[in-house]
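<context>
A single protein, sequence plus fold
<sample>
Here is the protein in question:
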Amino acid sequence: MTTTRRMLSPLRPAARVLTGSTYVLLGFDALRAPGARVGQAADVLATIRKAVPLPDDDELVVRGNAAVQVLGGALLALGIAPRLSALALAGSLVPTTLAGHSYWAVEDPDQAKAQRIQFHKNMAMIGGLLFAVLDQPDPRRRRCRSGRDRAALTSS
């Protein structure tokens, strides 16, 4: 392991906790009280239903998306299947972003600007999650976790 990689290695779990915990909190809030999110999601869900079979109950779909965020965020924060959980989170954030921050449909310039900022913030979050999907952990740790060649970490 290079010196740079060794110095930066604590950043991976810290990034997972910071990112994952955000989705746990946001998802829990939406799961507990979907409120206005259901109405905001209606048009996007109607469009998605043209291509994908989804339940007719918009609140159920919003709560399901929230559950994906809670579970995916927790798994990411704990480092369990981080690449898969980051992919699930990115997928859940696409309809959330389209439903909640469609700034192009807002007439009030100030509200449109606020929604555009939130839209692009979510796009940045999706980008960060896609980086996590592409993340390649230290191959020596992968061997050790899988039970093969446990001596690899102690011999170097």
In short: DSSP finds eight helices and no strands in the chain. The radius of gyration is 19 Å. Residues 12-155 form one domain. The longest helix spans residues 109-134.
